[in-house]
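so my prof wants the structure for this chain in the tokens format not the other one, which i didnt know existed until like an hour ago. anyway here's the sequence
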Amino acid sequence: MLNLFTRPFRQPAPDLSGLGADFIALPLAKGCTVPAGCFAVLANPEGRTRRLSEGARVMPVDGESAWCVHPGPYACDLTPFAAAPEIGLRVSIAIDTPDPREPQQRFDLFLASEAEERLALNAFVAALQAALQRELAQGNLDLPPCTSFEEWNAFRTGFNQLLYTRFGVMVDDCVPVDLGAARDLAALLAARLAMQPAPSPAVLPAQEAFDPALEDAKALRRLFLELPGLMCGLRLAVLPADCAGFRRHQELLRRLDLVSLSVGTMPALALAAPGQPLAGSEQLRRARHSRRAAAALDEAWALLARMKLSDVAAVPALLEELDRIVANLECDCAARREVAGEGA
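here's what i got, hopefully its the right format
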């Protein structure tokens, strides 16, 4: 028999258990259909992304990775102040529909640059909380005790813009809550005490242990994929009122472009020169600078969020802050390229 009437092969249904609850995004195999109520994000190795709506068939091309994304909403509790774990914010977030004005959706860029095969809700919430705590600690957001109605509205505006600019999510609701009853404060304090080193002025504090190859690759991928989008946002968000401000703005963008070029031509972590391996201590040093550059990138995204809400009078101060962030990026990217002894 020629098997002319055999049934066509059907891709088995993907395992999407936990999607929309414990996970925001899960991998989709080639040939699968996007389930109802979800959408798919496909990203190629260069970071270019595209979306597919529900019911579409997933056919990745050119090495694309595919995620099935549930838009939410998701409820979570955030701790705005690390030193006060009993103070919380109960937040409801969701992934918005695509903005036709944007060449690439910010959440899609987050998936391409930072997410792994699965995007767990608890890991995503931890990233949101870290961004919020950093902005409050630096004074860029204000959430004082006994917050007035006007102060709360100002905080909500900045908080909403921060999460949309940095992660591409919308804040549907945000209310203050008392988390004291839900958390063991004594256990938290004991854990912090155990993590503190014994007082000894003669001994320097030990640096955090991490996998240099893994962390370096993560940081450089973020810088490579996100810097172009960041520069595009900075170019559109600021309109200086005078020629001097315009020239300074253009100079900062030019320096960022050179940083992006430096990232794209970064030498391999494990090599001092072609065919010459680099010592492990030097690899750790290089990876630390990569991580610091990624931290500066986070600051730049947060600054862009503030720029989108600012008026003309605030532009000089914002450009001054951008100058500091760009200088940190330049310094850490240059140090990532160096080999010990080159600057001597």
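also thought this was worth mentioning. The CA atoms of residues 310 and 318 lie 9 Å apart.
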